[in-house]
Design goal:
By secondary structure, the chain is mostly helical. It has 20 helices and no strands. Helix content is 79%, strand content 0%. GO terms for molecular function: transmembrane transporter activity.
Amino acid sequence: MRALPVARLLVPALIFIALVVAAVASLGTPLITSVATSFHVPLGSAQWTLTVALLSGAVATPVLGRLGAGPHRRAAILATLAVVVAGSALTVLPLPFAWLLAGRAAQGVGLGLTALMMGVARDHLPERRGAAVISLISVVSIIGAGVGYPLAALLAELGGVRAAYGLGLAVTAAALLTAWRSVPEAPEGRSARVDVAGAVVLAAALLLVLFLAGERILWSGHLAVAAGLAVVAVVLLCLWAVIELRGTTPLVDVRAMRHPAVAGANLATFAGGIGMYLLLTLITRYAQTPHGAGYGFGLTTFAAGLVLVPFSVLGFVAGQLTPRIRTRIAGPLLLAGSAVVVGGGFALFAAARTNLAELFAAMGVLGFGVGGFSAAMPGVILAVTPKSETSSAMSVNYVVRSVGYSLGSALGGLILAAGTGPGHLFPDDNAYTTAALAGIGAMAITTLTSLALARRRPPEA
């Protein structure tokens, strides 16, 4: 068995790996326009450089979560990072657009490693230290986008899209080396067989859900087709639940997911994810809207990326503070408080967005709320989850969060599209206010769900 690294080496390794996979998966966001120009493809096609990474991440996460519960967790981590590095190489090589999409799909698989990093922390660190590290891993998996966005945008402006993706290749190779040197073997006495049938059905269902969330044109132009696919997705999810309940080695312990604390936490994650990603999308899009629209600041991709700096900084600060506050305040109350903070960010954006300082303030408030929410969430779920199921339970929460993010992005697009008049390229300024009010509604649901969790008796693990 591989010797256990000391905590001071293991902790930075886990956080670095979680940050890298999150940042690399988000590289598609600032590069969509550059990809469309460089590869001579429509913007809708270039958008798939982001969508395909989210899809592969959502599909890989529950499978990796189950592998992380077994004896081969270290091998699963190294193999996954090797896939991410290979995908990063495909994005850098002078190959056709289809190969770029394949590379982005391989990079997205790395998103499933976040839950495995949490499992390692819970198994190999003292309880209190492990809880703090798990909270921090959850936070960096969110703020990674804020780190990768401006760097990728700057490299794209200086050296083109290949240079920006070259950053991804460098950091993923470093993450693989770090994992090889630092990640220990899983504790002995565990077994985890992957439910192949359940994995295939869940992958198909998630593919449809995230596809429908991202294809706004399908809903506006072919409503019957979109509704039919939505029904198929629901049927597949129901079939998957039946397979998991009847299987001897389920991909996800559905019975455990029905625990009120876990179910409530996942519902709060879903509604909160919709709101959090909605505001992130609104602010970045508003900042890049040219002055000719009657509002906006006409920022370049790199300058718009700098608007995310307060999001990352204050998100990290909240992630550091939350574990200390949690010794005095219950996790569900922290979730509720964080949701209120995010709602305050929506209110600030709705009421004041005439200068860049106000956008920076709204983004900072959002980051602080998201950081607190992300840091508190693992504690709520893991309080009723056995150690051996850490990776599996958190992987489900990640999938729920991903679907919420996708729906939040789609909701923002639908509201802004509805507010765009005939013959206009940009929506009316009031459409942003409408979208902000919708976000406040999503955060109100998150707050009420979290308060309902707080009113329950403390659950026993």
